[in-house]
Amino acid sequence: MADVYTTLDDHDNALQCYTDALEESHKLGDEKTVNALQNQLLNKIAVVHVTNKQYGTAADTLEKALDYQKNVQSSIRGDLLGMMHQLGTTYTLSGDIDKAIECYQECFETCQDLHGMMTPEMSSTLCNLAILYHVKACIQEDGDEMEEDLLRRAHQCYQEALK
Question: Does the keyword Glycoprotein apply (predicted)?
Answer without folding.
Answer: no
